[in-house]
Design brief:
Layout lengths: L5 H16 L27 H5 L3 H8 L2 H26 L15 H9 L25 H10 L35
Length: 186
């Protein structure tokens, strides 16, 4: 006669559960369909560039254009929009200093050609910063940098002070000191 105690029955049940769980033909528990074709909907290496320099349908086209094709398509549009924006601001504000060269020494044509290709450069030897177009740090104040050093701040970043800040100077929550570094959720 075979005697089973509670521990033996529990061990047999656990072993049976393990054997059943190891079936190689299990289907995934999620229902996410990965068989379709997916489309890119947005890219934002340099935030706000698309928002400022493109209008209506061009915004969506920019978001799905391959970076290697962006410059040829968008640089002329960006230049036209920068010139128009510059003229409109000057017409409404006589104290406005017109764009001629930014803090990086870029003329309007060089700036718009650079920004029309939405990729981030990477500095292999120095500091990374959006302010020098050598990348982007998590802590970079992206909008202020774009306004101050790239568009409205002139050669030293001090021109047109009314147009060189969005006045949002800090994150709502501090960044984490370890990976993934992003601020904790609310």
């Amino acid at each position: 006669m075979i005697r089973f105690n509670k521990l033996s029955i529990l061990a047999v049940a656990a072993f049976g559960f393990v054997l059943v769980s190891c079936d190689k033909n299990d289907t995934p528990g999620d229902t996410f369909d990965t068989s379709g074709t997916y489309m890119q909907n947005d890219q934002m290496g340099r935030p706000a560039v698309n928002t400022v320099f493109n209008a209506s349908a061009d915004k969506n086209t920019f978001n799905v254009t391959t970076p290697s094709a962006m410059g040829a398509i968008f640089a002329p549009k960006f230049l036209n929009n920068l010139v128009a924006l510059d003229a409109a601001i000057k017409a409404n504000d006589p104290t406005y200093v017109r764009y001629s060269t930014n803090a990086l020494g870029m003329s309007p044509q060089i700036l718009t050609t650079t920004l029309a290709t939405d990729v981030l450069g990477v500095s292999m030897t120095g500091a990374t910063s959006l302010a020098t177009l050598t990348g982007r740090n998590l802590t970079d104040d992206v909008i202020d940098i774009e306004l101050k050093f790239l568009i409205f701040g002139g050669t030293d970043g001090t021109k047109n002070p009314k147009l060189t800040s969005d006045n949002v100077n800090a994150n709502d929550k501090p960044f984490l000191a370890t990976f993934p570094f992003l601020a904790a959720p609310f």
